[in-house]
Amino acid sequence: MSERVRFHWDEHVDPAVARGLRSHGIDVTTTVEAGLRTSADAAQLAFAVSARRVLVTHDAGFLRMANAGASHAGIAYCHRTARSISEMIRALILIHEVLAAEEIVDRVEFL
Q1: Which domain holds residue 25?
Q2: Fewest Cβ atoms nearer than 10 Å: which of 23, 26, 43, 65?
Q3: How confident is the model at residue 80 (pLDDT cuts 50, 70, 90)?
Q4: Does residue 1 lie within any of the structural domains?
C-alpha cells in the first residue's frame, strides 16, 4: 500500500493553511513545532527529507535548491500573493488525495 503525502510547513506560510489541512485529517508539521524556527533553508529541507514530508513554502530559495539537484520529498510552492488561504488548502488537499508519497519525491508542485 502506498504511503500518504504528509506536509511540513515553512515558517513563512500562514499557519491557518496547516490548521485547515489538519481539520481534514491531514498530517502536518510546522517549522515551529519541529524546533526549526529561523533555521537555514538547508536545515528545513533536510528535516523534510528525513521525515519524508512535502515542504510547503513561499520561498523561491527552495526552488533554486531543487533546480540545483537537491533531493527532496516533494515541494509544494506558492508565491505569497498567488492564492488565498482557502485556495491553498484546496490545492494541498488535492495533492494529498491524488498523489502517493513516493510519487512526489523530487517533484515540485506549483499551487
Answers
A1: 7-110
A2: 23
A3: confident
A4: no
Percent of the chain having pLDDT more than 70?
A: 99
Query: What is the Cα–Cα distance from 35 to 61, expressed in whole angstroms?
Result: 20
Q: Which three cell numbers stand for residue 41?
A: 533553508
Q: In this structure, is the dihedral angle defined by the CA atoms of residues 32, 36, 41 and 46, taken in order, positive or negative?
A: negative
Q: How confident is the model at residue 20 (pLDDT cuts 50, 70, 90)?
A: very high
Best CA proximity match to 33, nearest among 21, 42, 44: 44
Q: Structurally, how many domains does the chain consist of?
A: 1
Mean pLDDT value of segment 36-63: 92
Which amino acid appears at position 71 of this protein? S
Give the residue-averaged pLDDT of 58-65: 94
